[in-house]
Amino acid sequence: MATTDTLIINRLLSTAAERKASDMHFVAGSYPALRTSGKLTMLEDEEISTPDFIKQMIDFLLSETEQEQLQKDKQITTVYEWLNQMRLKVKIFFQKGMPVISLHLIPEMIPELSSLGLPQGVVNIVNLKKGIVLIGGSFGSGRSTTAAAILNEINNQRSEKILTIEDNIEFILVNNKSIISQQAVGKDVTTVLGGLKQALDQDFNVLLVNGLTTHEEWSLVMRHAEAGRLVLVIMTTETTTLALERIISSYPDDKGDWIRELLANNLESALIQRLLPRVGGGLALACELMLMDQAIASSIKENKLYQIFSILQSNRDNGMLALDNSLIDLVRTGEVTKGDALPEVIDKVNFENSLKKF
């Protein structure tokens, strides 16, 4: 790669870091773009990205083996460490026959759990010794950051053996009171399924896993939970109800009652996140927090998942939090505008009525 191209790439990455961007995008024929505080901005003082520059970026970010994988699969997700200063989650895919590069800037330090603006009930997750915890949200919702912060809090509080099985290792966890092993799929284990199988006879207490797509993988998660382990699962989902529907629907119909029983007996909590533009700059966190109780367990066993939303709304005093209530709080305190909150609301009529009472 030409020295000039390397200097340009390093300058662009420095700009992203200085402006505290969460993401950076490169598309041939467009200016490089940064996402800061949830908003996308074109860097119009930079050169428009050319196909040749995109190729130079790929050479910069990927090893030869990864480039071969990109050509074969037409997409790749990996992690790149830039000048020992910053870690980048690299996503490259194709559109109109041309590669597109998306970079997610991983925070240098794992933030303190108390600094994330999570509901008070999250302390219940840290104190759990067994069972399943779902940590969900869409891309860019901060779910990986929250999961890392929870693990780090456990690491700082008590002696455990922690194992992670991740598509790509974003946050590096450093042993404190706990011993931590982090496995990357494709490097340390062949697949998520293979990693979960290998872990069955390993000595550990806490497991973090992401990238689950099949009922075989979920069944292994259940086995780990039934063995007395705490299992944190990062997944893409909008609500607790949708997360449960996704898990159950991954099984054949004749296994429905069986998996609902397992979920009711082993699921302990679900934390679903949204990040919204904060008034004045930055991002504000909205959450849905489910803590397992008899009403939730019954709704799962009886296949009445639609009841979960109302259970969350009526159990705030018990530490639970409905997403709509979290959004109402953010609007009432002036942290988020009503216009930004409304698209995320589930029950828009109740949302409007609640704000009128304020």
Overview of the structural elements:
GO terms for molecular function: ATP hydrolysis activity. Residues 8-278 form the Bacterial type II secretion system protein E domain. This is Bacterial type II secretion system protein E domain-containing protein. The chain is built from 14 helices and 13 strands. It has helices spanning 3-18, 51-61, 64-73, 123-127, 143-157, 192-199, 215-226, 240-249, 256-266, 294-301, 308-314, 323-332, 338-341, 348-357, and strands at 23-26, 33-36, 39-42, 75-82, 86-95, 98-106, 131-137, 161-166, 179-184, 206-210, 230-236, 267-277, 283-291. It has a seven-stranded mixed beta sheet, with helices on both faces. The chain has a six-stranded antiparallel beta sheet with strand order 3-2-1-6-5-4. A hairpin with a 2-residue loop joins strand 2 and strand 3. The longest helix has 16 residues, at 3-18. The radius of gyration is 21 Å and the shape is globular.
Q: Which terms summarize this structure?
A:
single chain, 358 residues, alpha/beta, Beta-Lactamase, Rossmann fold, seven-stranded mixed sheet, 14 helices, 13 strands
Summarize the helices and strands and which ones pair or pack:
Elements: H1 3-18, E1 23-26, E2 33-36, E3 39-42, H2 51-61, H3 64-73, E4 75-82, E5 86-95, E6 98-106, H4 123-127, E7 131-137, H5 143-157, E8 161-166, E9 179-184, H6 192-199, E10 206-210, H7 215-226, E11 230-236, H8 240-249, H9 256-266, E12 267-277, E13 283-291, H10 294-301, H11 308-314, H12 323-332, H13 338-341, H14 348-357
Parallel strand pairs: 7-11, 7-12, 8-9, 8-10, 10-11
Antiparallel strand pairs: 1-2, 1-6, 2-3, 4-5, 5-6, 12-13
